[in-house]
Amino acid sequence: MLSDSEIAKQCQLKPIAEIASQLEIDEKYLMPYGSDITKININALKETSKQTNGKLILVSATTPTPAGEGKTTTTIGLGQAFTQLGDSVCLALREPSLGPCLGMKGGATGGGYSQVLPIDRINLHFTGDFHAITTTNNLISAAIDNHVFHGNALNIDPRQIVWRRVMDMNDRSLRKIVLGLGGKMQGVPREGGFDITAASEIMAILCLATGFKDLEQRLNNTLVGYNYAGEPVFVKSLGITGALLALLRDALHPNLVQSLEGTPTFIHGGPFANIAHGCNSVLATKMAMHHAEWAITEAGFGFDLGAEKFFDIKCRMAKLDPAAVVLVTTVRALKMHGGMDKNHLTTVNTEFVKAGLENLDKHIENVQLFNKAPVVALNRFGDDSDEEIAIIRQHVEAKGILFAESNHFAEGGKGAIELAEKVKLAVERSTPFKPLYELEDSVIEKVKKVCRAMYGAKDVAFTKEAEKDLHHVEHLKLTHLPICIAKAPSSLSDDPQLHGRPRDFQVTVRNIQVNAGAGFLVVLTGNIMRMPGLPKEPAAMKVKLLENGEITGVS
User: What is the chain's pLDDT, residue by residue, as a tens digit (555 residues)?
Assistant: First the structure.
């Protein structure tokens, strides 16, 4: 089979204005970035002549292997299948982060015959949204340190500044640093550090904002630290909100591109699901629903991470309710959860598949906890055997759950027709979702409800640091906020080495961070890091710029 880039070269992209026309978006709302990419002004949502309220489909997955199980590829393939069936459809995906693109995982534009294009531009700088978010975040950092340097009228305690700098790259050496060294004129020395841009609160704010007024309020409400009296200091007190809004002016508008088969695709916002809420922007999702009869979106990593936050944070805030949930799994993932060495997952072995089904079962139960009936999508790889797939199909259908084998990677939309048809059946079974917890619950109770119901934990322990953080949350009167649990993506537990369906384990909460602007509390568990590192041989080593200006190795 051809490589992703070779397949992409064979595709003749339609002018982006034509793609926008498919969605009946008036030309006056287009903000073009060349002929292949355009932003769509958020005022298009106010277009009264377009009254579509499309059905929202959420794509999630079982606990993934390190390479991922093709959730984005499945989402794209499913959208292309709806296109082939003659339905009005639009995708809403997250933007790739340069850290993973140039690190271990590679790009995030799908693969095979289920890709969104142009690959290199989307995976690298795209329309500059990540740059705008990074700059906005770091302007706040610069303003804080500058304020302390010039007399500190707000009495900010440098030891209690909680705001960190960010960059869109994996760089472990910047996790913890010392700022302001070099003498009196270089600032006030203090400890600091960097997170990756996808984990920043500004990213979460952009993705949850419903417009510029809401964006302004969220920015003003963002906690940056405490003064010497222990009282909170918010961005509003720094007097830079106008500049922050200016930096984010263009970034707030969703980006429109297309798939290989011409399916319209919004790609906007890119928070990670293991350290943030893992969903594309509310505005892009609503834009897709407003302009198509079917809107298909995804949530990062396994259902226990991205999809839980999709429901408990995004859907709750934006008043969304998916009509169906697709749960992607693979033969290789089930074999890993069945105990097979991850270096031999391409070897046919039905016993390991059977043993790994308990991980799939738990994720099916998790979907049902939100009052939804899942469609299990088996993302087929070339080395999967019919016997292995038959075991999974029989197991799922015996539970009364819809199942579809999807071959979208090799066949594009045609290979996902069965999945599209099963999704339509699932919509007929749809019931309103219910959250896992109520906002009135205590923070401890919220954490316990998610850990016990979603992960299968026996109990939750809070470190002394986490208990101190809880006191801060109570002092700030923010106990009513939803929670965003940062957890290892490779396990249902907070121990990345525990595969399958762990039982009788305890989740340890080590810190709780206040994201008052985004509107949630980040609950850090285990050894989760907000700044990843590069592997020994990062994907960046494969990227080349050819003499004709073509970029290779980005996929």
Answer: 898 888 998 999 999 999 999 999 999 999 999 999 999 999 999 987 765 789 999 999 999 998 889 999 999 999 999 999 999 999 999 999 999 899 987 788 999 999 999 999 999 999 999 999 999 999 999 999 999 999 999 999 999 999 999 999 999 999 999 999 999 898 889 999 999 999 999 999 999 999 999 999 999 999 999 999 999 999 999 999 999 999 999 999 999 999 999 999 999 999 988 888 999 999 999 999 999 999 999 999 999 999 999 999 999 999 999 999 999 999 999 999 999 998 999 999 999 999 999 999 999 999 999 999 899 999 999 999 999 999 999 999 999 999 999 999 999 999 999 999 999 999 998 899 999 999 999 999 999 999 999 999 999 999 999 999 999 999 999 999 999 999 999 999 999 999 999 999 999 999 999 999 999 999 999 888 899 999 999 999 999 999 999 998 888
Q: Among 166, 173, 171, 169, which Cα is nearest to 194's?
A: 166
Give the list of residues 6+ apart from residue 18 with CB closer than 8 angstroms, or none.
none
Amino acid code (one letter) for 517: G
- Give me the half-sphere count of Cα atoms (radius 13 Å) on the Cβ side of residue 70: 26
User: Can you give the length of the chain in residues?
Assistant: 555
**What type of residue sits at position 471?**
H
Please return the burial class of 204, using the count of CB atoms within 10 Å of its CB with bins 0-12, 13-18 and 19+.
Answer: buried
* Domains of the chain, earliest start first: 4-118+256-427 (3.40.50.300), 129-248 (3.30.1510.10), 446-525 (3.10.410.10)
Distance CA 124, CA 236 (A): 33
C-beta of residue 377 within 8 angstroms of C-beta of residue 81: no
DSSP 8-state secondary structure symbol assigned to residue 325: E
Contact residues for 20 (Cβ-Cβ < 8 A; gap 6+) = 27, 29, 30, 38, 40, 256, 264
CA separation for the pair 126, 120 (Å, rounded): 8
pTM: 0.96
Structural contact between residues 166 and 192, judged by C-beta atoms closer than 8 angstroms: no
